[in-house]
Amino acid sequence: xxxxxIVKEIKFEGNPDxxxxxxxxxxxxxxxxxxxxxxxxxxxxxKVSFKIAHWNxxxxxxxxxxxxxxxxxxxxxxxxxxxxSCVEFFFDPLxxxxxxxxxxxxxxxxxxxxxxxxxxxxxxxxDDIHKQIQVQSSLGSQPFAEKKGGHQWEITIIIPAxxxxxxxxxxxxxxxxxxxxxxxxxxxxxxxxLSWNPVHTKKPDFHRPEFFGKLIFE
Length: 218
Fold this sequence. Notes:
The protein is 8% helix and 41% strand. It has 218 residues and is mainly beta.
């Protein structure tokens, strides 16, 4: 059975900055675990959770991660950040099978595309991504080679509805949608693929909207 999250509306006077959003998420929302190991071959399981809310047609999202090794080599927008220590939010706003894949490595480099399946993605304009989406990581924004020995990090993200470029005029309030949340690290020494809602495929494949759970925005 698909998981469901009621995405809380957190009312705020004006537009909070990203530090305020991080604190508001901590004090007003519950954590949801990204803890499903769907493929036995990739059994490593870092500790991952996220918090989500919305306000003023913006999605607020915060991931908290504890893992043995961290990697952050990708610095170019829309590069393959999934090779690094990466968290992802795949969002199908209308529940029609076409979805946005928001991917963020642990220093906030962003990858964003839209389409109905893995092979038919339309990348968002990097300039628009920089202007619209706010990202702040506790690890800063400078790249680094893999670091071992155990690490804890968090990343806060503000996604305005305007970044959903293929759904102009969309209103989040009252929206019934579908989504999944992931943690991966293709090029880390402990390759892993965790999900929030289960993915029933033979090998790792996050681009499967039929396995998304439900997000209902208050």
